[in-house]
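Protein modeling request. Please complete all fields; requests missing the sequence field cannot be processed.
Requester role: graduate student
Desired output: 3D structure, token encoding
Chains: 1
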Amino acid sequence: MIQRIQTLYLLVSAILLALLFALPIAEIAKDGAIYLFNYAGISQNGTPLKSGFVISFLVGIIVLLQMVTIWSYTNRTRQIRMTICSIFLLVGLLGAFSFFTYYSFNGAQISFKLGAIFPLIAIVLDYLAIRSIKKDDALIRSIDRIR
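Delivered output (147 residues):
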């Protein structure tokens, strides 16, 4: 399981997404006030202003889905489908990021932090995992033809 490259891609993707629970996503500056946007929502000086339940829920579901995908290595078709579902959820997570940052505050200056690029990196890693799973499946099918 761990010796397969797609497992490493999925594991790194899950770790990056789990780091979203610890890292800030963006800082929003408006009217001299600085707001912090992380998985818990938007807060100012530790006081929560907007709940980030949607962000927390999506990140938790995606990390759980990544881990289930890793452990379903015996069924490559299911692994591909779950990874594609994970990519769609990651796109939804990026949409939630943009909603919270751009639509919550009109005319604010937004400074994205390191956590904002983790879903993009995870999408690339999931795509690479799908390619590796397909290569692995093609190799298994070619070996079955020889017998």
